[in-house]
Amino acid sequence: MRDPYVHAEKTSLPGFGHKAIRALITDAVGGAPDLPKTAGTGCGLRRPLMLPYDQIPKERLAVGDLATPLDEELGVLNVNLAMWMARDDSKADASVVRAGNQVMDSIDAMLRQLHQLRARMVAERREDQDIAAVRADELLARARQLQEDGQ
């Protein structure tokens, strides 16, 4: 029998979530709000700080997609946590017990999702650092060559 007081289902609404909200912000302001659009490079040049959302390569969007289920799970957690906090300890209520169990299940699910997101970020950061190291090596080699040519 369904609880006559509260019923919450985990559903994903189309057009909502991390990806959709980020797209709305990007469409409205052309980037993240309250952030500069360019950054100084230290040598007087200005470079774009970030790509517009529609120009981000598809393989890079995958890491952002890992965060979308967190939004949904957090909603489920909040509803059940509210039920747990508002419980009446003077009487037994199975729906409160279910809500408490669902809070723990939501936390476990979010931890799994966070670990997946972290693993993906670690891999992407390592790849990014490798690419940056190659660029730095090329710059150093060019600087050495210029130094040798100047002497």
Report on the structure:
The protein has four helices and two strands. The protein is mainly alpha-helical. It has one domain (18-150). The chain has helices at residues 18-29, 58-65, 68-85, 94-150; strands at residues 38-40, 46-48. Strand 1 and strand 2 (46-48) form a beta hairpin. 5% of the residues are buried.
Portion of residues within helices? 55-70%
Order of helices and strands: HEEHHH
Largest sheet descriptor: 2 strands, antiparallel
The spatial strand order of the largest sheet comes to 1-2
Write down how many β-strands occur, each being a DSSP E stretch of 2 or more residues.
Answer: 2
Cα gyration radius (Å): 24 Å
Overall pLDDT confidence: 79
Helix segment tally: 4
Number of structurally distinct domains: 1
Beta-strand residue percentage: under 5%
Terminal Cα separation, in Å?
88 Å
Class by SSE composition: mainly alpha
In oligomeric terms, what are we looking at? Answer: single chain
Tell the overall outline.
elongated
Point out poorly predicted stretches.
Answer: 1-11
Tag the structure with descriptive keywords:
4 helices, two-stranded antiparallel ribbon, mainly alpha, 151 residues, disordered N terminus, 4% strand, single chain, 2 strands, elongated
